Amino acid sequence: MEVIITKNYDEMSKKAAEVIKDVVKKNHSAVLGLATGTTPIGLYKELIAACAKKEISFKNVKTVNLDEYVGLPKEHVQSYDYFMKDNLFNHIDIDIKNTNLPSGVAPDLDAECARYTALLGKMKQSVQLLGLGSNGHIGFNEPKTPFDSTTHIVNLTESTIKDNSRLFDDISEVPTKAITMGIANIMNAEKVLVVASGKNKAKAVYSMVKGPVTEDCPASVLQRHPDVVVVVDEDAASLL
Ligand code: F6R
To answer: In angstroms, what is the span from residue 36 Cα to ligand 1's centroid?
Structure first.
C-alpha cells in the first residue's frame, strides 16, 4: 500500500487525479471504477480540466460506479446517477452509453445485483476509486460485510445515514437502503485508489492502513490488494 500525504484537500485532489490520468493515458479504453460523495469532487474537477485542455480523452473510456441508493429515481438530485452526470460525465467527452451504475429502482433488485456482478465480471476495473466512510466502509460495504461479497443490497447504518444527511434537507429523506458492489468486486480491480480528507476520517484511515485486517473495518481488506494508492490530506493522516 502506497500512502501519499498531502497538505490539504486541493493537493489531494491533484495527486489523485494524476493517478487516474496516468491510467487513461496508458490505456485509452480503460475501465474506471468511480465513486460519489464529497471527497472525489475536486479530483473530478481536475479530470474535467485535463479533458478541456485535451491532455486526456474519455472517448473510449468505460466506467462502473460503486453504488446507488435504493428507491431514488435517476432524475433525483441526490441519486448517484445524477451526481455523476452533474460532477463529471456532463463535462467530459465520454459516451454516456459507456457509463454504468447499479440501478436502485430496478423492479427485481436481486436480479439487478446479479446483472451488475456479471457486468463487472466482463469489465475489470483498470483502477477503482474509493472514498472512505468514517466507519471504514468502502462502497456501501458497512462493517461486518463478508470479504467475499459481490453486488448486494445493504441496510445503511445509523452512522452512514447521519453522515449522508448533510446532503439532504432532512435526515428522514436519506434512503435507508443501497445497492453496492461487494468487497470481492472491489478487490478484483487491477489498481485501487483511495482518497480521504479531514479529521473525521483519521480513525478510518488508521484502521485501513495500520489496523488488523478485519471485517469490522471493510477498508482494511485493501492491505491484501497488490496495488493500492492511498492519497490523504494531513488531517485524515493525523493518526498514522
Ligand atoms: C460513494 C461511496 C461511499 C463514499 C464514502 C465517503 O460512492 O461508495 O463509500 O465514498 O461514504 O463519502 P464522502 O466522500 O462524502 O466522505
So the answer is: 6
Mean pLDDT, the chain, rounded, equals: 97
**Res 159 pLDDT > 90:** no
CATH class of residue range 2-198+220-230? alpha beta
Indicate if 67 belongs to the active site: yes
State pLDDT tens for residues 110-131: 999 999 999 999 999 999 999 9
Going from N- to C-terminal start, the domains of the chain cover: 2-198+220-230
Return the best residue to mutate from 44, 66, 128 for the ligand 1 pocket (most ligand atoms within 8 A of CB). Answer: 66
* 163 has pLDDT over 90: no
| Phi-psi label, residue 116: left if phi above 0, alpha if psi -120 to 50, beta otherwise | alpha
Task: Choose, from 46, 67, 68, 112, the residue flagged as catalytic.
Answer: 67
The secondary element (H helix, E strand) that includes residue 2 is strand 2-6
CA torsion angle 215 219 224 226 (round to 10): 160
Look up 137 and say whether it is catalytic. Answer: yes
Name which of 101, 121, 119 is nearest 180 in CA terms.
101
CA of 180 to the centre of ligand 1 (A): 12
